[in-house]
Amino acid sequence: MTIEFSQRIRRIPSYPVAGGYAQDAPLVRLASNESPYPPLQEVREAILGALSTLNRYPDPSSSLLRRRLSERYGVPSSRIAVGNGSCDILLAAGEALLEPGAELVYAWPSFSVYPHLAAASGARAVTVALDGSERHDLEAMLREITVATRLVLVCNPNNPTSTAIPLADIAAFVAEVPAHVCVIVDEAYCEFNLLEDPDASIALLDARPNLVLLRTFSKVHGLCGLRVGFALCGSEELPRAFDQVRQPFFCNALAQAAAFESLAHQDAVIERVTRTVAERISVDERLRAVGVESAESQANFCWIHLGEDRDEAEIMRGLQERGVLVRAGGALGSDTPALRVTYGLPEENRRFLDALAELLAPAPTR
Ligand SMILES: *Cc1c(COP(=O)(O)O)cnc(C)c1O
Questions:
Q1: Phi, psi of 242 (to 5 degrees)
Q2: Which residues contact 166 (CB under 8 A, 6 or more apart)?
């Protein structure tokens, strides 16, 4: 007898995981858009301070963290949702808004978690191709909105292509979306976007009760190992619904304490962004020198086009043999050979670039 699972289990795609977790050898880990910088000393102390009360459940409403988020972003705490990583909020939004017969619109290639939402709920996923510069085609996305649409996802900057669209375009887009359709702008990488002030989008919330700005402590704050993210919402109904579909204690006590402390160190955020942008400029320059094109990155990673005649799997293998872990574009929705590579420390980037240059030289073998 084989166990009989639900329809959803047959539908839900497995998240494409990064390799290398079982290896002990020092590896250059550029596969998951993590921060190369360890948590701040003050954040580590806050985590240690929270250890002694782990016999208690965490605050189920993350009150202190939500209050500090409210002070930092100027959004009432009743319009802020916290989650076990921002993916937790994304999946909760899918549960709260979608069902069979409903439709979900998002661009593709985009974040690999998005296909999960339709599969888990039985809603229909409507995907819209990126434009020629690998940016969201918001006009085409608007055309896909029907009476059945419940949720639209916009990833800005977009994972995996690293590109961003101007806020004015997003504002115009949101103004056209019917008010009963929820729009989630996934801003996991917004701090790295130099096109505008990362907080400029917050002003849109006041006039748009259906808008959600999704943010995370996983990237620039370097806390992905703890799992904590948040959503700034245009109305109170949204966080309430997201909480309704989740287990009561979705954000653990260490994560709450660490995120609370991390918000007090905005200077560190700025410093990390500055360092990452410096690496972005120098890596992109060297990529051009070895003869590959990368998209215009506004994130902490680049999206590299290897060229039609290259063998993506072979290059992935070659990099892995040289101790460098990156992501294969094919697993992330690219139909031409591509790599998604996180900007790491200068030395890590050097190791990646040296390995890539070696693998690409002197000429394509096929
Ligand atoms: C990394 C990432 C997130 C963050 O996920 P967490 O669950 O907060 O770690 C969200 N959206 C996108 C597009 C990402 O790349």
A1: -65, -35
A2: 195, 196
- Angstrom CA distances, 57 to 43, 60, 249, stand at 20, 8, 7
Which residue ranges have their beta carbon within 6 Å of ligand 1? 33, 85-87, 111, 155, 159, 186, 188, 216, 218-219, 224, 229
The CA 327 to ligand 1 mean position distance, Å, reads 15
Burial classification of residue 70, based on how many CB atoms lie within 10 Å of its CB (0-12 exposed, 13-18 middle, 19 or more buried) = middle
Q: Give residue 22's pLDDT.
A: 67
User: Could you tell me the residue ranges of all domains in the chain?
Assistant: 7-38+266-360, 41-262
Hey, what amino acid is at 316? Answer: M
Band of pLDDT at residue 8, cut at 50, 70 and 90? confident
What confidence tier does 133 reach under pLDDT thresholds 50, 70, 90? very high
Predicted confidence (pLDDT) at residue 51 exceeds the cutoff of 60? yes
CATH class name, domain 41-262: alpha beta
The correct CATH number of 7-38+266-360 out of 3.40.1390.10, 3.90.1150.10, 3.30.930.10, 3.50.50.60 is 3.90.1150.10
